Amino acid sequence: MFATLLGALPRPPLPVDAPRKALVEAAVRAQESAGLDPVTDGGPPAPTERDLARIWTATHQLTERAVKQAVLGPYTAAHGGAANPERAGATLYRATALNAALRELSAAGCPLIEIHEPAATAIGSDEAERALFREAHLRLLDGVEGAHLSLALTGGAADGAGIETVLAAPYASLAVDLIAGPDNWRLVVETPGDRGIICGALSSVADSDDGPELLLWAAAYAASTGGRGPARVGLASASSFAHLPWDAAVRKLERLGEAARLADEPLDTRMQALDPRAVSSRSAALGRVDPRPSGHPDPGDDPT
């Protein structure tokens, strides 16, 4: 099982005049040390206007690990409120422009492109907004080949938009914030089993309880949905760490990597690492959930 970062890291504790390369390298080394893979440049999702292939290549040259490129999606980039009559056109224009950038990025060798759409949490049941999101993402991914394409929904719950909207475009995986948007579990359950799920289950709150129990439970539950299996599940931060002190962000990265490593350990090893109160015959953290006769287990059930 892999672990990765959703969102940005704080600025590393380097001199104020440190070059960008040094800042990116510090972010990469922190992720490597924690066991994360794929890694990022530590910055926020890049806007459409940036030279994505150049940005990714510069990070790729700093590490032997897989490097993903996070990109701000067209729906969020153009989002200025439904009252803006120009927004629909701006959204589709950005989707077309970003499509060209994604093709270049894929041709450069980027193995994973992560499209961030936090504004999708506001779509809800609005049919016009659903249609706009679908069309934008179909344009965005048109003809982009060779890279794993992932959609990231953070900052709240986007389940109101429906899986038909969220995955209208051919994304290979879905990353969801399960802390600010626990109702995103509905999207996880509805996501076809041949698509990956990245569980954003590590809180960005400074003093949160970052033990492995919740992370392992989330991974096991996601693996149980749609016959997905653990090979199509990853762990991630729920959102950005940019507001945290550097040391606090690094500790969270370490917790995330530790949980991913623990997920691949034998059952006895996992049991020893968990709070005894989380261990039982129905503990999802240990992958031993007994589904209800009607289908999937309820993620709200007590794992004990």
Explain what the structure shows.
There is one protein chain. This protein has helices at 20-34, 52-60, 74-77, 87-107, 127-141, 163-166, 185-190, 212-224, 246-263, 267-273; strands spanning 2-4, 68-72, 112-116, 148-153, 173-177, 196-202, 233-237. Helix content is 37%, strand content 12%. The radius of gyration is 19 Å and the shape is globular. The longest helix is centred in the N-terminal third of the chain and has 21 residues, at 87-107. The chain has a seven-stranded parallel beta sheet. The chain has ten helices and seven strands. The chain has one domain (2-268): TIM Barrel. The model is unreliable at 281-286 and 288-304 (pLDDT under 50). Strand 3, helix 5 (127-141) and strand 4 form a beta-alpha-beta unit. The protein starts with a strand and ends in a 31-residue tail after the last helix. It is α/β, with parallel strands linked by helices.
The percentage helix is 25-40%
Domains counted in the coordinates: how many?
1
* Strand/helix succession: EHHEHHEHEHEHEHEHH
Going by CATH, the architecture would be Alpha-Beta Barrel
